[in-house]
Amino acid sequence: MAAATATLRSTEIPPTMPETTRNMTVNGMETTYQGNTGPDMGISTMGFRSQKYNPAEWHETNYSKYYQSFSDRDNAERIRHESKRTMNETETTTNKTQAEVTKKLGERLQDINFWKSELEREIQDVISETDLLLAQKKRLENGLRATEIPLHISTDNLNCRQKRQGVDLVQDDVELSLLKEVEIINNVQDLLKKTIDQSEKQIKLNREAKQNLEMDWSDKKEALEIDTKSGSLRNHHTDKQFYSGAAKFEEIQSTPESWAQFSHDNVVRAEHERMASIQLRQLIDNILEDSSRDMREQCDTVDVNFTKRIEEMEDAKTKLEENLNKICREITQMESNIDNLRKAIRDKENPMKVSQTRLNNRTYRPGVELCRDPVQYKLVGEVNEIAQSIDALTEQLNNAENARKDLQDNRMALEKEISVKKNSLFIDREKCVTTRTRYPTTLKLQGHQ
């Protein structure tokens, strides 16, 4: 009993067991009646059976009721004291925990505000970078459109120069430089188209990163409003109620580390796309600058070759005209020579007639007078000499006429060649070079206009 008494907080003395109860037991054995009670069977002995409660049991039962009552009262008093202590402790703990939770909510609001500000800054940076990249894409499109005029000029020059005639239809330096110009323009157009596609993909990535940032920012804003409302909620407010099952962890909930890592990853991905966009803008600047420089340099090369070619054709045309004048003068002189030769041949007719007439007259000499005298030999020699002179003059006449024909053919060839040169000069100087004055400026090729 001493151990039981030590645990009680009540000042009430616990009940003690009656002495009679202690004396009714001998050596721990229950006292029973040992007299003759008759046979075991029969009604007369039913009330004296040993199964009845004895006085000791009666007293013990009463004592247990007293003690149980005492114990219940003592336990109730202890519970009252414990309840008051517990209420005080729980009130203190609840207030302390609520204050800590309110403080944690404040700290959480600071974290949310920090990441919300970081997201806002990155969103503005991505928007600004996307606008700059859109401007660069516009420059690329302007530059691509600007290459259409040079390509048209180059192909038109090549097509026009296909109309050159004769030997002037040559693959000269101008044609080679024009073909090179067409190749450069085609390569520039392919490069600009690929860069435009690349910029469109980067703009799409920038917008996706911006969308992810905005969705995260929107979640942060909503969470900020919820936690601000939760942090300002107090016990005396009326907008509170019980929510069963609220105090549990959802499987989909994130941890503070994963929460911060999520926003960090969004910012890092956005910065990565922004850096890629900045590098692409720098690449676009270099591409537009290099392509415009290459096209302008090739344009200048073509113009220089055109100038040289025009000078060459002017010089050739001048020399051809000089030779034509000389040929014409030579033809005039040759025609005069032919006339002289014909007159010389005609002049040999009368001497030939005189000689042949003399020979014919002398054939009528009679008898022995028909002699081969020196006169006869001289007359025969004269006829042969005149005949040889006529043959020599005829041969010279034929040569002169052939030479005149060659001169005339040469004159026609020179006139045709001069016409070819004039046609080539008209194509190169009047059509090609004039058309090339519409070649775009460097600023236009770089997409600034």
From TrEMBL:
<feature type="coiled-coil region">
    <location>
        <begin position="383"/>
        <end position="424"/>
    </location>
</feature>
<dbReference type="InterPro" id="IPR000435">
    <property type="entry name" value="Tektins"/>
</dbReference>
<dbReference type="GO" id="GO:0005634">
    <property type="term" value="C:nucleus"/>
</dbReference>
<keyword id="KW-0175">Coiled coil</keyword>
<dbReference type="GO" id="GO:0005930">
    <property type="term" value="C:axoneme"/>
</dbReference>
<feature type="coiled-coil region">
    <location>
        <begin position="303"/>
        <end position="344"/>
    </location>
</feature>
<protein>
    <recommendedName>
        <fullName>Tektin</fullName>
    </recommendedName>
</protein>
<dbReference type="GO" id="GO:0060271">
    <property type="term" value="P:cilium assembly"/>
</dbReference>
<dbReference type="GO" id="GO:0036126">
    <property type="term" value="C:sperm flagellum"/>
</dbReference>
<keyword id="KW-0282">Flagellum</keyword>
<dbReference type="GO" id="GO:0015630">
    <property type="term" value="C:microtubule cytoskeleton"/>
</dbReference>
<dbReference type="GO" id="GO:0060294">
    <property type="term" value="P:cilium movement involved in cell motility"/>
</dbReference>
<dbReference type="InterPro" id="IPR048256">
    <property type="entry name" value="Tektin-like"/>
</dbReference>
<keyword id="KW-0963">Cytoplasm</keyword>
<comment type="similarity">
    <text>Belongs to the tektin family.</text>
</comment>
<keyword id="KW-0966">Cell projection</keyword>
<dbReference type="Pfam" id="PF03148">
    <property type="entry name" value="Tektin"/>
</dbReference>
<keyword id="KW-0969">Cilium</keyword>
<feature type="region of interest" description="Disordered">
    <location>
        <begin position="1"/>
        <end position="23"/>
    </location>
</feature>
